Protein: Nipsnap homolog 3B
Organism: Equus caballus
Amino acid sequence: MCSSFATGPRQYDGTFYEFRTYCLKPSKMNEYMEKIKKNIHLRTAHSELVGFWSVEFGGRMNKVFHIWKYDNFAHRTEVRKALAKDREWQEQFLIPSLALIDKQEFEIAYLVPWSKLEKPPKEGVYELATFQMKPGGPALWGEPFKRAVNAHVNRGYSKLVGVFHTEYGTLNRVHVLWWNESADSRAAGRHESHEDPRVVAAVRESVNYLVSQQNMLLIPASFSPLK
């Protein structure tokens, strides 16, 4: 018997992703990026960096966004303890960089069961589209949302990198990470999709479960694994 409170397929894989967004003080963006580029190897010695980007368009200026992968919550706890004891990381980067940061936000998210993390074929730009869905979880909006995403993928308007559903942070939030060759190719694909009846029909179905949405255009850092 299925409970009426079920929110969708059970999460069997313990792997999750930490989304971190840092808003930097005005005029401190370049200094921060130079520091993190020089010292990122100290941080990646402890856990896997999926990607690191600066925000080009969308929302607040002077912002960076990065994703970290963990096997489970125990793994993250071990990493955080190790970082706290890593004197080189603390003294060379963390403590000096705190004065450059104005605000920090983070979320914990899982890949949705029908998505896996894909690596783009070459360097490009990324779009993080964030959808605030109605309460009820994937059992309510999962299938219509999947059809809307796949409609874009199947027509080749953009390459899907991953679809994530929040576990901690703002609940009922879905992040879709896309890749395009350039901002112009992304714009062209978006305009074409708006005239595609199959995409329009799929999106129209999913918006019945949508509260709000926003997006950011992301430029990968030189040291980002996802380019």
Remarks:
- Residues 124 and 181 are 4 Å apart (CA to CA).
- The longest strand covers residues 101-111.
- Residues 1-7 have pLDDT under 50 and may be disordered.
- The helical segments are 29-44, 73-85, 87-98, 138-154, 183-193, 197-206.
